Amino acid sequence: MTTKANSIVKPLSAVSMPVSMDKTLFRFKRVGESFVQKVLPALIVGFLLILIWELLTSSQSATLPSPSRVVTDTWELIINPFYNNGGTDVGMGWQILASLERVAYGYSLAVIAGISLGVLVGQSTWAMRGLDPIFQILRTVPPLAWLPISLAAFQDSNPSAIFVIFITAIWPIIINTSVGVRNIPEDYRNVAKVLSLNGYEYFTKVMLPAAAPYIFTGLRIGIGLSWLAIVAAEMLIGGVGIGFFIWDAWNASMISDIVLALVYVGVVGFLLDKFIGFISNLVTRGTSN
Amino acid sequence: MSKHYLSIEGVNKVFGQGNKQSCVLKNVNLHIEKGEYISIIGHSGCGKSTVLNIVAGLLPATDGVVILDGKEVNSPGPDRSVVFQNHSLLPWLTVYENVALAVNKTFKKTKTAKERHEWILKSLEMVHMSHALDKRPAEISGGMKQRVGIARALAMEPKVLLLDEPFGALDALTRAHLQDEVMKIQAEINSTIIMITHDVDEAVLLSDRIVMMTNGPEATIGEILEIDLPKPRNRIEMADNPKYNRYRQAVLRFLYEKQRKVEVLVSAEKPKPAQASLKKAASA
Ligand SMILES: Nc1ncnc2c1ncn2[C@@H]1O[C@H](COP(=O)(O)OP(=O)(O)OP(=O)(O)O)[C@@H](O)[C@H]1O
Ligand SMILES: [Mg+2]
């Protein structure tokens, strides 16, 4: 313990740097430390996994490509994410964006409808008794099972995919919102009553902030499910989109393309989750008490 | 029509239905004049908060009426602001915003935005919280939160200020400090106050009258003690004041002799139930 402290102090005092230099050095050190603690383990494990993968698939008889094969096979795709040859022959960037666009539509609708219904169910005992059993049944239907029905209803693939996203994302949003609204402390309700807040004021000033942590839990689960569902739905409906890209690659036996697509899907899903988490932190900062 | 500022007339309160019914309050009558400081004291669970909530309009009375300034009370409103036991500040709003929510709502029509802003600052100044305008409740101490709660309630210029054990969760020093502040504020603006308390000293020091409630169920007002001590009162001088000590004794006698809480569950296990409950009550 003491020796360690000495070893940190000594070089600094010996050189007697200006204070600002001390500080930058210190900050640099802190950043370095958090890098070592948080990022480095993941990098090491990732590297090891790729190494194992490389070893397992290096023989001639392997059915799956090795990481190095994947990179050489898909190099054109990697360096040209935004080429456009018309039709479905577009870069990975466009494929991802097309999928994200569908998710954006379906998810936005689910957020609006989900929070509204969640508030209704959370506020009114009768709405809860009437709607909750129906929600509990419908939410167990797998996302893809909705696809044929929506294709029949919309007669078009794009709205059907959007509907599948919507119906997948909405349940966790409804359920978490309603739990959040039901759990608003009696005290806050009483404060609102004493101040005679009207419905709109109560909704914006008390209910939404009080339920925000719950709502964001729902939103975060919802975005994850949306991203899971879009890839599956796009495999079936075709067109531009990362899901159909995977299906297309499978039909053309381009396994390396599939691997690359999976990496993209994983990274984008991760970023979506982090994005909602970031907004959640921003909005609910200071509300925990 | 009653000639008192605030009248509680024949109020009964029954909770529950059917055979789970329990009659918590039975025939509560109380008349309060403008500018009076009333304390309600009684054992835990006797129905003090229920009385306060009925006056606030947060609970409906089963029978009887509450009349404030000639009008019957039947819903909550800004003319009867409440300071809740656990401050009840909205944690997502800053100190300033918490008070602003009340002020902007109450004086939307009668004050300009600038007047309201100044009024918010003045209210917070009154409880010495001007230094923490932009802090959130999580960032200030329990005593400070309670101050902001009081500022929020006072800022609404209520006809009656209702305090439900406002200092109950605070340490003795902070409590004394806040009691002094409330005394000062009341002397300044002569507000009408009903305060629930467990603390005998607090009741005698602050009140014009102490309302002592009998034990529930079917609790009602047992005695009303008029505190005839000149204001402003000083807690140190009061300690040697024979009159003050007689009032204290009167309240203690009511609570621990006439209305001694019979703790059935405790007495079944412990050999000395009377002492146990006395100790507990004294420390409360
Ligand atoms: N909503 C309710 N439903 C049923 N019973 C209730 C309800 N609210 C209060 N009671 C009962 O009424 C009685 C009085 O409660 P109240 O909260 O008024 O007591 P109190 O005197 O304020 O107690 P304390 O000093 O502990 O705060 C208690 O026995 C309680 O169980
Ligand atoms: Mg109470």
UniProtKB/TrEMBL annotation, chain A:
Whichever gene encodes this chain, its name is: ntrB
Q: Known Pfam families for this protein? A: BPD_transp_1
Domain ABC transmembrane type-1, chain residue ranges per copy = 96-273
Q: Which CDD domains does this chain map to?
A: TM_PBP2
How does this protein lie in the membrane?
Multi-pass membrane protein
Instruction: Tell me its family.
Output: Belongs to the binding-protein-dependent transport system permease family.
Q: Known PANTHER family for this protein?
A: ALKANE SULFONATE ABC TRANSPORTER-RELATED, MEMBRANE SUBUNIT, NITRATE IMPORT PERMEASE PROTEIN NRTB
Localization terms from the record = Cell inner membrane; Cell membrane
Organism ancestry: Bacteria, Pseudomonadati, Pseudomonadota, Gammaproteobacteria, Oceanospirillales
Q: Which domain of life is it from?
A: Bacteria
- Know the name of this protein? Nitrate ABC transporter, permease protein
GO process annotations (BP): alkanesulfonate transmembrane transport; monoatomic ion transport
- Which organism encodes this protein? Nitrincola tibetensis
TrEMBL record, chain B:
Q: Which UniProt keywords apply?
A: ATP-binding, Cell membrane, Membrane, Nucleotide-binding, Transport
Q: Which domain of life is it from?
A: Bacteria
Transmembrane intervals: none
Which CDD domains would you find in this protein's record?
ABC_NrtD_SsuB_transporters
UniProt keyword annotation of Cell membrane present? yes
Coiled-coil-forming residues are none
Q: Which Pfam families match?
A: ABC_tran
Compartments it resides in: Cell membrane
Name the InterPro entries on file: AAA+_ATPase, ABC_transporter-like_ATP-bd, ABC_transporter-like_CS, ABC_transporter_ATP-bind, NO3_transporter_ATP-bd-like, P-loop_NTPase
Record-annotated ABC transporter domain positions = 6-240
Q: How does it sit in the membrane?
A: Peripheral membrane protein
Query: In the record, what terms sit under GO molecular function?
Result: ATP binding; ATP hydrolysis activity; nitrate transmembrane transporter activity
Q: Which GO terms describe its cellular component?
A: plasma membrane
Please state which protein family the record places this protein in.
Belongs to the ABC transporter superfamily.
What is this protein called in UniProt?
Answer: ABC transporter ATP-binding protein
Please tell me the species this chain comes from. Nitrincola tibetensis
